[in-house]
């Protein structure tokens, strides 16, 4: 049977012309409907020939998304047919190609552009030969390309590889085991080692696989016996610093953030947290990852009451909040006092000088501090990014632009904190600038959330006590009940 896989033809124009020419030997011109359909499809494919994202089309999972990819001329053409949550590898590849467009666009020679594109089109970590090729072709004519590629690769050989050799014993097959030993004995970067292991039969780096667990959790000293080693490891070393968050790592958009996330929530918290916080959690592009981590740490809960400083957040029984507590209330008060005293707003990698906030929109700054600490959740997305209009208005008025480092504007700063899309979910400051307009309800008629705030002890599960109702019980009863949960055995 003569088969024409569209994605293969789309990626190779020479093969496409050759196969269509061969097809004429099998399909007569009288098949007008067939040839019309084929010609229209080829025309659509030809339109996006120069789009760099075409190189990623083979990574799509759904046929609908794949067809959109091979006929697209830009990423925007995919928005109605490809879901990022379903096509993580595909969108990671698209992001990489977009970076390549920006990077290689600075090339001043054809050869420099060619070797630069090869770096980004490869699915694996750039080899030493590829990196050397960029140095030879671009160092004199296109220094911007050199700098950009260097930032993209950021490679350095791993030291003390021999400490990880015991992980090879956990390989699922002999081919993987041999590849593991060979890779760890060579002077390679960590990503080159990962690539070699995947190609060598070890499969993708999944945290539940014993081989990858061993690498993720770090090299532990090999004890005299397996029993001794099990006893010597703490629960953090066995399970990870916060293993409940590991599943969120696969929601990261960029491969770098995915790797940092896996390292951070295994047992390398102290080594990688600062980089993860600065390079990933501070990026608007990683909102889905941040929301997932927040859901594990502080899930959105109904209702907010009992606040003193952030009193405008009270009496909101049907709205969602992550941290409606007295501690968060006090923290918001402290933040405003600190901003006023120091005259700066601290952000990851940046200090924003502000005017006297006791005079410039004081209620707005108070509301922002309360939003940052009380953390209201949007009902649809559970995100807590403030709306772009609010951000722009506040920074335009209250930022001290005389003390601000050059190269920044209200628009560029707000692009780091607020979504570009005007229809994207966001938290409006205006809704919290005044007290809630919800009508007061008698205690018996109020919406209640007995388990809000985790009232039960550690390792217990909270559930609503449906046998307790204030109007039906003369004696005081607890509106919730705590049940002992299952805990991991041993330590």
TrEMBL record:
The gene is LOC103506468. One of its GO terms (cellular component) is plasma membrane. Residues 49-97 form the Reversion-inducing cysteine-rich with Kazal motifs N-terminal domain. GO terms for biological process: extracellular matrix organization. GO terms for molecular function: metalloendopeptidase inhibitor activity. Residues 295-434 form the Reversion-inducing cysteine-rich protein with Kazal frizzled-like domain. Residues 162-216, 242-293 form the Reversion-inducing cysteine-rich protein with Kazal CC4 domain. InterPro entries: CC4_RECK (IPR056978), FZ_RECK (IPR056979), RECK (IPR039016), RECK-like_N (IPR055110). This is Reversion-inducing cysteine-rich protein with Kazal motifs.
């Amino acid at each position: 049977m003569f088969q024409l896989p569209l994605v293969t033809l789309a990626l190779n124009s020479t093969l496409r012309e050759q196969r269509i020419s061969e097809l004429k030997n099998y399909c007569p011109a009288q098949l007008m409907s067939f040839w019309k359909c084929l010609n229209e499809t080829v025309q659509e494919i030809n339109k996006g020939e120069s789009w760099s994202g075409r190189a990623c089309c083979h990574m799509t999972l759904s046929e609908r998304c794949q067809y959109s990819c091979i006929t697209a001329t830009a990423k925007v053409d995919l928005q109605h047919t490809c879901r990022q949550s379903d096509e993580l590898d595909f969108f990671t590849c698209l992001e990489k190609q977009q970076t390549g467009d920006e990077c290689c666009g600075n090339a001043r020679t054809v050869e420099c552009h060619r070797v630069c594109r090869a770096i980004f089109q490869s699915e694996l970590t750039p080899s030493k030969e590829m990196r050397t090729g960029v140095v030879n072709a671009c160092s004199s004519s296109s220094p911007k390309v050199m700098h950009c590629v260097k930032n993209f690769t950021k490679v350095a050989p791993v030291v003390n590889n021999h400490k990880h050799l015991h992980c090879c014993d956990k390989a699922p097959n002999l081919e993987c085991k041999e590849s593991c030993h060979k890779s760890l004995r060579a002077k390679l970067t960590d990503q080159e080692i990962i690539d070699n292991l995947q190609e060598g039969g070890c499969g993708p780096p999944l945290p539940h696989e014993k081989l990858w667990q061993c690498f993720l959790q770090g090299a532990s000293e090999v004890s005299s016996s397996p029993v001794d080693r099990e006893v010597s490891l703490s629960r953090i070393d066995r399970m990870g610093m916060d293993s409940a968050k590991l599943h969120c790592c696969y929601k990261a958009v960029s491969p770098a953030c995915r790797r940092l996330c896996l390292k951070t929530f295994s047992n390398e918290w102290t080594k990688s947290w600062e980089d993860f916080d600065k390079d990933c959690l501070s990026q608007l592009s990683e909102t889905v990852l941040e929301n997932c981590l927040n859901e594990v740490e502080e899930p959105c809960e109904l209702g907010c009451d009992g606040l003193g400083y952030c009193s405008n957040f009270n009496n909101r029984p049907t709205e969602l909040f992550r941290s409606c507590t007295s501690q968060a209330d006090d923290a918001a008060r402290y933040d405003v006092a600190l901003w006023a005293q120091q005259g700066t707003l601290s952000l990851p990698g940046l200090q924003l000088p502000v005017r006297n906030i006791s005079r410039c929109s004081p209620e707005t700054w108070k509301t922002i501090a309360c939003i940052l600490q009380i953390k209201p959740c949007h009902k649809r997305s559970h995100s807590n990014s403030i709306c772009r209009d609010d951000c722009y208005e506040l920074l335009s008025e209250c930022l001290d632009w005389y003390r601000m480092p050059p190269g920044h504007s209200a628009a560029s700063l707000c692009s780091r904190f607020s979504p570009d899309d005007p229809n994207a979910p966001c938290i409006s400051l205006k809704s919290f600038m005044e007290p809630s307009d919800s009508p007061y309800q008698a205690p018996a008629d109020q919406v209640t959330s007995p388990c809000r705030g985790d009232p039960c002890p550690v390792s217990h599960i909270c559930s609503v006590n449906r046998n307790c109702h204030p109007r039906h019980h003369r004696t005081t009863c607890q509106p919730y009940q705590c049940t002992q949960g299952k805990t991991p055995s041993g330590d």
